[in-house]
Amino acid sequence: MTMKNIKIIFILLLAVLTGCSDDLLNKEPLSDVTEDNFFTKASDLQLYTNGFYRLLPSTSIYNGDTRAGNILETTLSEEMRSARTIPTTGGGWDWGYLRDINYFLENYQRGDNASAIAHYGGVARFFRAYFYFDKLKRFGEVPYYDYTIDPDDEESLQKPRDSRQFIVEKILEDLDVAIENLNQDQQLYTVTKYTALALKSRVGLYEGTYEKYRNISGYETYLEASIEASEELMNNSPYKVFSSGNPSSDYLNLFNSHDAVGTEVIFAREFNTALDVDHNVNYYTTTSSYGRPGMPKDLVNTYLNADGSRFTDRPDYNQVFFTEEVANRDPRLSQTIRTPGYTRKGQTQELPPNLGATVTGYQIIKYVTEPQYDTNDQSITDLPIFRFGEIILNFAEAKAELGTVSQTDIDNSINVLRNRVAMPHITINAANNDPDPYMQNQYPQVKGNNAGLLLEIRRERRIELYMENFFWDDMVRWKAGQFITRPLRGLYVPGPGEYDFDGDGDTDVVFYKDDAPGNQIEGIQYLKLDSDVFLSENNLIDPQPNFNNRSFNENKDYLYPIPRIELQLNPNLEQNPGWE
Amino acid sequence: MNTIKRRCRFLTTTIFMLTIYAIGTQQLKAHSNKSSNLDEVIQLLARNYGSINFVYNTKAFKEVVVSDFSPTNNGIENELHQLQQLVPLSYIKKRFTIALKLNKEIEQERIITGTVTDSDNLPIPGASVFVQDTNIGTATDFEGNFTLEVPEDARSLSVTYMGYKKQIVNIENRTEIDIILQTDAASLEEVVLVGYGQTSRETLVDAVSKVDAEQIQQRPIADVSAGLQGLSPGLNVTQSSGDPAAKPRINIRGFTSINGGEPLVIIDGVEGDINNLNPNDIESISVLKDAGASAIYGARGAFGVVLISTKNPKTGNLMVSVDATTAWNSPTVNTDFLTDPYKAVMLVDESFRTAVGRSYTGYNEEDYQNIYEVSQDPSLARVETDIRNGREQYIYYGHTDWWNYFFRDSYPTQIYNVSVSGGSDKIKGFFSYRNYNSEGILKVQDDHYKIYNLRGKLEMKINDWLSFTNNMQYNSSNDLKHGGSQYGWGDQFNGNIYVHGLPSYMPQNPDGTATWRTELNNYTIGDGAYASLLYGKAKQETEEGEFSNIATLKLNPVKGLDVTASYAYRRTNYNRYRRSVNIPYSIYPGEVNTMGTDQLTEYNTRFKYDAFNIYGDYHHQIGDHSLKATLGFNQESFYTKSTTASKQNSISDDLNSLGLATSNPEALGSAAEWALQGVFYRLSYDYKDKYLLEVNGRYDGTSRFPEEERWGFFPSVSGGWLINKENFFSSLTDTFNLVKLRASYGSLGNQEVANYAYIPTLRKNIDGNFALNGRTLDYIAAPGLNPREISWEEVKTFDVGTDIALFNNDVNITFDWFQRNTKGMLTQGATLPSVLGTGSPQENAADLRTRGFELSLGYHHSFEVAKSPLNFGIEGNLSNSVTEITKFDNPNNSLLDYYEGMTIGELWGYHVDGLFQTQDEITGHADQTRVSNRIIANGGLQLGDVRYVDLNGDGVIDEGENTLQDSGDRRKIGNTAPQYLYSFRVNAAWKGFDVSTFFQGVGKQDWYPNGDSRIFWAMYNRPYDTFIRKDLVNNIWSPDNREAYFPRLFGYIALSDSDALGAVNDRYLQSVAYLRLKNLSLGYTIPKRITEKFNISKFRIYFSGENLFTFTSLTDYIDPEAASNSVNLNQPSTSANRSTAQTVPFNETYSVGLSLQF
């Protein structure tokens, strides 16, 4: 063999080595699935629907009440200040979850596990209803889609809004399918038949009253749907009002339990120290840099006296010092704010309200746990999304608004809540015969035969569901926007001087004018009037002295604006009234 | 699939055919030889043995007639032997150089001996030593020694060697002359690496700049890219942090594509990581900037190529070189923060009170008094115990400098490098080892960063047509950092240390326990980061190991044809563990509690890379026509696999093993792979070395695109004209050594998209914010809309340039102007209504254009000072680029997205014309709610607040529709892209001393500090920020300080973009342009005659300083390079993308070192 031949063979060998494998450039994903190999097993369906739980709220459950000034903070909400603006993008106009849900509903029947298909199909229907209910509350009418939109489908992308009634029909339809198909077991954190019933109870009441107070005919259907769902939960479910026979602590313990109390809570958002999934309620309510939340005085006023009489019936109800003011009231008051005798969970030391941590002086204690969870983002109480207490309030209100309420209905609902805290019962006659003028002043739009009862139901609802993010929605559906313009007040401060807030005989707070007192004693809060604390003309703390004149635009402010870019992209979409 | 197969067959067959063709032509050539004189014979041999340099006296050889010589192609030694039969000729062969001389020249008169070395005292074998202006000469041997018989009247010697400056030495009466040659960076023959080959500076037709590898060696840097900053115009290197473990980013010619796109880095012919390279191993670096130069790399060369070759083994005795450097690093930024506890507490409480209505600290009047006393007399600093709120607790009256307590003023780095090289013609090797070891800035615990680099290169010449090289590399690094906080693991500089550490607090209680929280308020000092650092158990250790091997066969089957085939294999392992622990602290005397999370997380990632390259070079010359062809095939595959596992609550705080942890196990995993194939070619043609033409191209396929869109063809063409070789220029040739005009145009591809972008997949995710039934929520969501028709972005680059050399190459000028159009950038299609529920599908729909220039000027000269040569050089570089979006589907010109006509980096903001100084100004002023939200909601505007200007006069300060047409009161106020990058170097060497200074700077760049830049904004960001810079304290508006830069003290107003300082505006816009003395070095090489006595061929000691001075208008508490770091030119989002500049401080480094060779 000549040298040249050897060279040629060598090069040929190299050429062969380049060995083009046919599929070198065909690479399939190694760690992601495609739809062809998914949706077959029950665990696939569960894994997919897990994603829907991400649309559940978290901290807004405990601080959402700031929107309507039901909780007051250092900074007043945009809604209260009429400072909402039209956003360019975002602003809640977010549709990603709907696509996820509809995609699931287009694909979930590929497997053959019928019971899993039924249940998880129900989960998806529940969340689609939940999604649209959120959109409806925020924007009013919106376009409805029960399919995934193709990017080339101009018609769908350019669709105008669907009517309110159509959307609510669709929500209720989804819920009925969900109720029929969902599992019936009692679960705290996942969706069951009862969760769907609870949502139906809420949606029905919302839409029924929303339309009733706007004189839209046909609202009765929704109230009836609500009643039907509530009754099902009241009569055929394992849930009841949690009570261990301790009227002075059961209400508090329902919310500061680390794991939600499953006898009453139907559906909760789970928080867990080990997983580092936390919220911030302890820090929020005990420090001075997360807004210093406080209960407004007008709500404190509506708590009845322990004997069932009205606190606001005494003429000096705005000039009663704290310790006297909070004594002998509905026990829920002492289980919602710090009152004399308050101790932190797991502690024995009695604590006065910390005026540095609350702008009104009424320091909220709901959900607050042991001090070890006080640092930023370390709170772990589960937050309730649906609880039986709400269901029976929905029931009573829907019945009363519909005019079909009986004393038995009240006894089966509101009076059960009153039993927990050992408060006297509501009787329909007494309520209707003597409507509370203080409440009437708050809700002048409540009229008719059941006006007195409705006012009592509203009192009960605001107290019972305080700090659970209901108040904005309630105000909207009751068309009670003017309520937002009420004066915002905190507790009564007679003037400069030394005050004992926990009734132990020692001074807790010193209010002074001009120069700070010398020889300050440790453990006492020294607050300068007109500097640290402002007072209104009748000596109530005024946490927002710059915002005593506020307004609410009835034709605009119940809804939120649609982002500008969406109107540019879809000319068939019209802006909400007043926001143009 | 069949098409691919066919393509491959075609390719391999073509390479084979080329070989056959080459064999054929070679045979023809041998017969056509009819030589007439010795010069022509040698020239013929030179062509046939392309790798060998011949050194001889052309004039003399032309006069010698050779009657009957025909080459036999059986080895150069045999050829010369044959020639010696015909003419009286003798020769010396050293490596690739053969020096020839005619025997009749010998007239025995005088013998001079000597050694030729380079400036590093390394011998230069094969250098030509001639008696000036005669043909009497010789070449140096292996050791650089020469012996020359010279005529009596000889005055001087002329010494030349390729790549070095010609040196003329006076003989005088000496018989022993040692000559040191200086490298000639600007030599026209200098070899310049280009893709799959090399060329000379003279014949280069593309925008390629060569970086002097020596400039990055012997600097105390962790990685190569840090050293490249400023060395080549158009090559932009940006560092994001002073942490040596943080890798700088490199970019060529500015903004590339909205999808990113980085230069391809080729190390020894194979794609590699520049930062895993030992800087001392580098032989040469080329930066390929235009399409002409990089088209041969096709789909990945679109945004330039950095070509690096490592040192090759040298023939000869074993040569050992050792370098040792010790460096001390200290922050470039001012760390002298406000530590007066009283002043700090007053400022913090005041800014908190304005925003929140309460005091922050909770100190009472007596406490304030105590703190005031401490501020007057720091020795009174103390921790007291007192009963507050019914409980005995610690009360702090400190005078703490938190920065100094936890961080060092200076920390050391050691670098050792050893290399060994040597061998015979047949087999030789090069081995090197480097150890880099830097400590960390943390004082209370010892952090470190260590790198080991190992390289072994072996070259074997199997026979005269086949050689084999094996190039093995192993790199490993180990990075240990302490950290942690109450939130679990956290990096030291991640933000926690910046809060709640007031000077009046103290890090430790009297009993040695850590402080965390004072019960006077509810805040946590450093969010637990300081307590964690003191405890020292929360840490992160990252280990990376990379093994790579490149085996290369080189064949020279026939004359004129070289075939190179290589196989590269690389395996990388990345391991990291992160540990957070329960951190002990004490609030109440005698009671120790813990905070935080005890969790161990282990990360492991493996990378596999395999590449095969084969290419052939053929060159052929007919008369004045010279042709070179390169053809090759390349195939690469990548694979990566990651796992992450975590577990909580270990039974040990010290041992970090998942086996010891007891609860909440979690594991994640992912994997991906991709591959490339390509065929490439280059044809170069020149006529009379005067007109140069080159075409390059590549046909590339990638797995990242669907089959139908997978293949792309990327061609380029370049041309050059050497004007100085034209006749009409002849009168100027004494001055001009080179005047070249060149231009190139090419179309390349960018495939910088996700691996499986076109395949709809259901991504499995974990959302750590949700728990579901005792587990973190994992879920699967709907696939996004993936189009199947996505393909390459096309990058078309046009470049014109000139290379000019004057005055014996003393002056060099290179200028390039370019325009780069990036077309069909893969982008989200037109924004669709949000009801779609996902991003609109991607399409190749956007275009941009980058224009810029590069200029480099150099002057080098050797003067005679005190009878010794003084080598002096000065070089300067300047470059700029501006990018404009030329097509983007954004019909409303929304400013939230790119729009047509947008300049990359443009910053939109409001106009501020000062602070409110009178109540009247406030009363009549436009509604500022949108840009002063917090102030309006908490008391309204007051004197000293920022005054925004209602530019459109609508009575409201806002962003309008936030479109180009209606931007409200906003306008373009600056640009965040760095502009006019420049650098210059001055160096000189004389009598063994050398000095070099290197300045680098950015001419223009704007920065609007991020709302959470806690150093910049201090109390305006969060009232309780730990580090309050002193230059801010005296610049706060008050009725007595109306001219202040900063407004009335008000907490949190920098934090959100709807607040007074957070809203981007022109008053608080910062310039981060700078000029920095990057490097100053001084060295002294001990004369060889001394070191030789110790058998040491070179001994140099040096001092070097890095980042010694910086000129900038920015506050000296922030490094301008850190401030610009988020402007990732490859990935800007919107103008809101602004950095916090909170990072490990950049370093000012002083180092001393020595290097020796023996």
TrEMBL record, chain A:
Pfam families: SusD-like_2, SusD_RagB. Keywords: Cell outer membrane, Membrane, Signal. Gene3D superfamilies: 1.25.40.390. It is found in: Cell outer membrane. GO terms for cellular component: cell outer membrane. Residues 263-579 form the RagB/SusD domain. InterPro entries: SusD-like_2 (IPR041662), SusD_RagB_dom (IPR012944), TPR-like_helical_dom_sf (IPR011990). Belongs to the SusD family. This is Outer membrane protein, probably involved in nutrient binding. The lineage of its organism: Bacteria, Pseudomonadati, Bacteroidota, Flavobacteriia, Flavobacteriales.
